[in-house]
Amino acid sequence: MTGNTPEDPEDQNAADLFRQAVGEVKRLNNDRIADKRKPPPPRPRQLELDEQQVMHDAMSDPRDPEAMDNGEHLNWARPGVQRRVMRKLKNGYYSVQGNLDLHGMNVNEAREAMQLFIASATRDYGSCCVRIIHGKGRKTATESPILKPFTSAWLRQRKDVLAYTSAKPAHGGTGAVYVLLRARDSREFEKE
Known about the structure:
Distance between the termini: 66 Å
CATH class: Alpha Beta
Strand order of the largest sheet: 1-4-5-3-2
Strand content: 5-15%
């Protein structure tokens, strides 16, 4: 039985054959700097999923849809919002920074679209006015709006919504709302 040890003449012969086959070897100088970039920090994926679930739950559906505001004209303001501000919002005084059209969406799709839209608007514009088109419900089987009462309930649940009111007729009337948003605290963005 032959062992493969460095003293083994067969291994020595193979090493000599390799050197002869390769020929003279020249050392290369490496003039490049080693990559010392830090890897990206780990993402807390479970935390992100938990925060998404919290946002989904934060805009939960009311327990009793009949108890929701089903009036023709929507109008709501957080305590502390001045009447003058509400009057300007109702008259379309504030320029609309973004629009979201919920037509054709079911309740779950509309909830998710609204969450993303409001988060994006407050991140991109800070305090601003946006318009959400929920529709009048004239093409539904029940002939009553479906998304309108949900929109009203969801907006009231969000801390970044200061006020909302039905839009002027030229901007959708009772089928849309102007929404006044407050800027999010910069610490809230660090969590994203």
